[in-house]
């Protein structure tokens, strides 16, 4: 009786260890190079996709969406994580973009993160 | 998937702890009746059953409670139907990864207004204009629609191809509503490439 009890417990422990080892609980971050931009400027976007052990998750597609102050979402674009789980992308602010607070949302593996930045309306000239 | 695996881990952990507990007690107390060589099949079955049921209960609770994008539990639900010639879809997120199939409003008191926000994405090649309505025949109970007002903030807007638009739906419950404790209905969003 004793030996197969220990065998059963050992098997259970091994099964639990295998499940924990291969279950990935991801986290994602997003950042921009500045908090405020002018029209037609490039927004440098970067972040990382990591697992519960803080190890980068490589070769995963990250969807990136930019939402203007009125709720319009520009076409979603993607980036792929490198060997360290890092990703980067560039979004050029259109020359007809509205001023105000924009929301940048990234998602991958069912999780997402957001960051806001401001787009300042650039006044080229004032005629009096 | 993660939630199912969490459930499995919790149940297996509970069973393992259930089997290790008598060994620990035996080790500390030296009670011969708990020595592994004296374990009977019935004793083990009881331990596995009790710890398995306990782990299962905890696992079920964890399964329901664990949700990275948790929303309030709702007893009211609304189906959403998309119609029209333009290819479009509705999503919970701006990146268009989580499709909307059912809208949940939570519990609405008489006089209250519930809000739901989602995104309409134009997946076609022409501009998208859209209208929203409900089908009276889909209401349960059938006459409940008289007690509600449904509005959205998409009026006079259009969505360019590949673009999306954040939309807020508002459901107002009339304060004179009596005798309706639960309801469900379908919202129909009709898309076209010309203004309605």
Question: How would you concisely characterize the structure shown here?
Answer:
The complex is a heterodimer of chains A (128) and B (196). Helix content of chain A is 16%, strand content 43%. Chain A is an alpha+beta fold and 128 residues long.
Question: What does this 3D model show about the protein?
Answer:
The complex is a heterodimer of chains A (128) and B (196). With 128 residues, chain A is an alpha+beta fold. Chain A has a single domain (25-120), classed as Sandwich (Immunoglobulin-like), CATH 2.60.40. In chain A, 16% of the residues lie in helices and 43% in strands. Chain A contains 1 helix and 10 strands, in the order αββββββββββ. Chain A has one helix spanning 2-22; strands at residues 27-28, 31-32, 36-38, 42-50, 61-67, 72-73, 77-80, 86-92, 100-108, 111-120. Chain A has a 5-stranded mixed β-sheet with strand order 3-10-9-5-7, with no helix packed on it. In chain A, strands 1, 2, 4 and 8 form a 4-stranded antiparallel β-sheet that branches. In chain A, β9 and β10 (111-120) form a beta hairpin. The radius of gyration of chain A is 22 Å and the shape is rod-shaped. Chain B is of the alpha+beta class. Chain B folds into 2 domains: 2-65, no CATH class; 77-192, Sandwich (Immunoglobulin-like). Helices cover 27% and strands 28% of the residues of chain B. Chain B has a 4-stranded mixed β-sheet with strand order 3-1-8-5, with no helix packed on it. In chain B, α1 (2-29) runs antiparallel to α2 (41-65). Chain B is elongated and about 85 Å long. The model of chain B is unreliable at 68-75 (pLDDT under 50). Chains A and B meet through α1, β5, β6 and β9 of A and α1 and β7 of B. β6 (72-73) of chain A pairs antiparallel with β7 of chain B.
């Amino acid at each position: 009786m004793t030996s197969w009890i220990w065998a059963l417990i050992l098997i259970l422990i091994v099964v639990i260890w295998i499940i924990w080892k291969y279950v990935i609980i991801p986290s994602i971050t997003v950042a921009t190079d500045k908090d405020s931009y002018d029209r037609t400027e490039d927004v440098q976007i970067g972040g990382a996709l990591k697992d519960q052990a803080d190890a980068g998750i490589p070769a995963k597609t990250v969807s990136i969406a930019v939402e203007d102050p009125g709720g319009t979402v520009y076409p979603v674009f993607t980036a792929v994580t490198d060997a360290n789980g890092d990703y980067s992308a560039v979004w050029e602010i259109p020359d007809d973009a509205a001023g105000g607070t924009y929301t940048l949302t990234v998602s991958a593996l069912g999780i997402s993160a957001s960051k806001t930045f401001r787009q300042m309306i650039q006044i080229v000239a004032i005629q009096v | 998937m993660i939630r199912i695996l969490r459930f499995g881990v919790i149940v297996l952990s509970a069973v393992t702890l259930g089997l290790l507990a008598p060994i620990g007690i035996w080790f500390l107390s030296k009670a011969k009746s708990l020595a592994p060589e004296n374990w009977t099949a019935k004793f083990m079955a009881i331990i596995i059953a009790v710890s398995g049921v306990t782990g299962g209960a905890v696992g079920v609770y964890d399964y329901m409670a664990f949700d990275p994008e948790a929303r309030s539990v709702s007893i009211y639900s609304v189906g959403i139907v998309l119609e029209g010639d333009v290819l479009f879809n509705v999503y919970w997120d701006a990146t268009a990864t989580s499709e909307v199939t059912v809208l949940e409003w939570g519990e609405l008191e008489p006089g209250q207004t519930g809000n739901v926000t989602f995104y309409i994405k134009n997946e076609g090649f022409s501009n998208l204009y859209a209208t929203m309505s409900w089908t009276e025949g889909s209401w349960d109970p059938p006459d409940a629609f008289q007690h509600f007002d449904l509005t959205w903030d998409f009026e006079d807007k259009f969505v360019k191809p590949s673009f999306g638009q954040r939309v807020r739906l508002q459901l107002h419950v009339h304060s004179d509503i009596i005798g309706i404790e639960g309801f469900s209905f379908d919202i129909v969003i009709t898309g076209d490439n010309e203004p309605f």
